[in-house]
Amino acid sequence: MKTVATANTVYADPSALLKLYLHEPESQCMAAWRTKARGSLPVTHHGRVELVNGIALAAHRNLISESAFEGALAALDDDFAQGRYVQADLLWRAALNRAAELGREHSRHLGTRSLDVLHVASALELGFRTFISFDTRQQNLVKAVGMKLLVPTI
Questions:
Q1: Which domains are assigned to the chain?
Q2: How many DSSP H helices and E strands does the chain contain?
Q3: Which of 23, 41, 52, 108 has its CA 20 to 30 A from that of 62?
């Protein structure tokens, strides 16, 4: 990665953030980016739900132990408590309307899922210009709406 955006100017897809709590293929890349990026990373309420649920699903699928589950949730809570994440308030009606527009315009061509569209719409409504995602369909939507795509690498 050539440049590092400050954390507070980036919308990170929760599935990308989840890689900070679970061992996944891109975890090392995401951790390296987060170590370099300064500032608090904004996370929406639905993004936080997706993070908690993703950790819980990993436990349900026996991908992580009970102690790893508890540890991951504790680490997530600590990231919020220590200010590494900040809760981003979002006007839901505007975000959902924007998501519907994006879905209508792009999903038939790109195959984007509802949550992918909702996160891109949320980023736009919050005024973010840079978006982190490892999901190819979501990346294509990010590009289609004119946002800068950031895919962390080592």
A1: 7-150 (3.40.50.1010)
A2: 8, 5
A3: 41
Residue with tokens 């190819």: 136
Q: Is the dihedral of CA 7, 8, 10, 11 positive or negative?
A: positive
Q: Which residues touch 21 (CB under 8 Å, ≥6 apart)? A: 51, 54, 55, 72, 75, 76
Q: Which amino acid is at 73?
A: L
Tens of pLDDT, residue by residue over 20-52, are 999 999 999 999 999 999 899 999 999 999 999
- Report helix, strand or coil for 150: strand
- Give the tokens for residue 149: 């795509």
Helix (H, G, I), strand (E, B) or coil at 75: helix
Instruction: With both helix axes pointing from N to C terminus, report the angle between 114-126 and 136-144 in degrees, rounded to the nearest 10.
Output: 40
Angstrom distance (rounded) from CA 4 to CA 152: 9
